[in-house]
Amino acid sequence: xxxxxxxxxxxxxxxxxxxxxxxxxxxxxxxxxxxxxxxxxxxxxxxxxxxxxxxxxxxxxxxxxxxxxxxxxxxxxxxxxxxxxxxxxxxxxxxxxxxxxxxxxxxxxxxxxxxxxxxxxxxxxxxxxxxxxxxxxxxxxxxxxxxxxxxxxxxxxxxxxxxxxxxxxxxxxxxxxxxxxxxxxxxxxxxxxxxxxxxxxxxxxxxxxxxxxxxxxxxxxxxxxxxxxxxxxxxxxxxxxxxxxxxxxxxxxxxxxxxxxxxxxxxxxxxxxxxxxxxxxxxxxxxxxxxxxxxxxxxxxxxxxxxxxxxxxxxxxxxxxxxxxxxxxxxxxxxxxxxxxxxxxxxxxxxxxxxxxxxxxxxxxxxxxxxxxxxxxxxxxxxxxxxxxxxxxxxx
Length: 396
Description:
By secondary structure, this protein is mostly helical. It has helices spanning 2-21, 24-37, 41-66, 70-77, 81-112, 116-132, 136-162, 166-174, 181-192, 196-206, 215-245, 255-296, 300-304, 306-324, 328-352, 356-359, 366-394. The protein has one domain: Amino acid/polyamine transporter I (Up-down Bundle), CATH 1.20.1740.10. It is built from 17 helices and no strands. The model has no long low-confidence stretch (mean pLDDT 87).
């Protein structure tokens, strides 16, 4: 029974991270890049998967071995650094949660024709309900798993109706016509950027899966999480490629909805509504849980009223969208800042692996350290580029 319970938690953590990554932005990004890069986008997906795994394994292992949350590890590396990291994560999580709520509202609008605001309000209430049940952790795990399976299954159906040139996609994945570095970094940021990479690691810690003896399970869960998100990305890529290969024009106003509708007609459009809602609302849950976990150990009040802080986080995100609408300028700025969170966080985690007061006698694999350093440098350069180009847009 204990083994079954542990397996369920490991799978729940993997799905929490994966469904946190699969949000409205994930769906749009994948479709837009497929339209511009065609079959060569397969290479971008392959490179991003490799980088994602490198970042994810490093961070999850260090959280497990230290038996501490990321912000506490950062404070041990340099006093005050944990507060800075927590501030970045919470600001990014809150801003993007407003976008996730908007995506959930859009999904409801497609399905039932209700206003986006009404759909957002209903979705916010459902997300809050998950944290109000007695065993919120289990409810969150199960919800993420069910919604993850639903999204993947429906996208597979649309992919088959689109009849993509699979052979060409396989060839171009390894021999691309064009390599787009910015697309690679965008995908990495969208899969393991900001709060996302910590979602599963913190969930395992909360569930008591930690310490040196748990490292094989933690590593397996981390890789599984990237695998789940990548499966969704690949199927969506193939669906979009099938549509483009037929010479059909994708609507720039809503690229993913256009793909589903062109591939499978009105049924496809309704399927998009389900996928969009599931992607958005699971991202709302993941962002709220993970963002609050970053301030839980820094504030006794938040720790005492953890459940209600999560509820407030979701409620604020929902009300901001319903009352004000999506604050585009804030999203641009925080999006740029979010691009810098991964290299900062991963850099801090890599330093922590060589501090005995944090990891004891644990020896981190050298190849994993090198892998992590490469990711830090690449993401820091591109995150800086994103930040420099994002701020001027606020003043246009």
